Amino acid sequence: MGLIDYIKGIVKDTGENFIVVENNGIGYRIFTSMNTIGEISDGDELKIYADMVVREDDISLYGFYDKSELKMFRMLNKVNGIGSKLALAVLSTIDYNDVARCIALSDSASLTSVSGVGKKTAQRIILDLKDKVIKEFGEMDMPESVRQGRNLPSKGENRDAVDALMALGYGRTDASTAVQSVYEEGMKAQTIIKEALKTLLKR
Predict the structure, then answer these.
(1) Per-residue confidence (pLDDT) for residue 179, from 0 to 100
(2) 160 lies in a domain?
(3) Fewest CB atoms within 10 A around its CB: which of 45, 64, 69, 70?
(4) Which run of H or of E encompasses 160?
(5) Residue 20 counted as domain residue
(6) Per-residue confidence band for 19, with pLDDT thresholds at 50, 70 and 90
(7) Which region holds residue 169: left if phi is over 0, alpha if psi is between -120 and 50, else beta?
(8) What is the mean pLDDT of residues 86-92?
(9) φ/ψ bin of 192: left (φ > 0), alpha (ψ from -120 to 50), beta (otherwise)
């Protein structure tokens, strides 16, 4: 943990990936995600949860409207080869809740939708963070099988079912979540698809 937990003040400016918050006559430039920027406007009084990132040649502030988003940023930032800028890019491209689901569901394809995240980087994120994400974000709307780490379908069954659902127009994250929620040991891809569709149609 750094020296700063949060900053409370008035939003004086917003940029593509930062906001300026004034507190006691000092304007703090805080790098943040599009998710946070979308929640605020110039002149708003807000409390933003922050993290100070110190490097040899730079000291920067990163902050988020939601404390859970900051938690995800810190987790991503600790993955070897990621860094704060790429962690921010991930959170600006994919909502932090969906990032957690992608990691928990080993959905590397969705993570590679982020500019700068290739297949190997996505796999490293999943490898390093999957257990931590399930532990820290376990209260999310995530399949019980994922939270418990049991009854997971084989890669072939999973891939075939998810691909079939995506061909029907569903997003990869929704398809993966539905597949994981209905899977029982020994199920074939065709049965998984049928049951997953029932789940998706109820939403």
Answers:
(1) 79
(2) yes
(3) 45
(4) helix 155-167
(5) yes
(6) very high
(7) left
(8) 94
(9) alpha
Same domain, 115 and 162: no
Tokens of 79: 């993955």
- d(C-alpha 84, C-alpha 64), whole Å: 13
d(CA 194, CA 191): 5
What CATH number does the domain containing 130 carry?
1.10.150.20
Contact 180, 152 (CB under 8 A): yes
Give me the domain span that covers residue 28.
6-65
What Cα–Cα distance (Å) separates residue 94 from each residue in 10, 35, 45, 120, 163?
Answer: 27, 9, 26, 18, 20
Q: Is 1 contained in some domain?
A: no
Residue 163 lies in a domain: yes
Taking every pair of Cα atoms in the chain, the longest distance, rounded to a whole number of angstroms, is 64
Amino acid 180 reads Q
Q: What pLDDT digit, counting tens, does each position of 119-157 carry?
A: 999 999 999 999 899 888 765 555 554 444 444 444 566
Overall domain count for the chain: 3
Question: Which token pair is 89?
Answer: 């890019």
Token pair of 193, please?
Answer: 């698809």
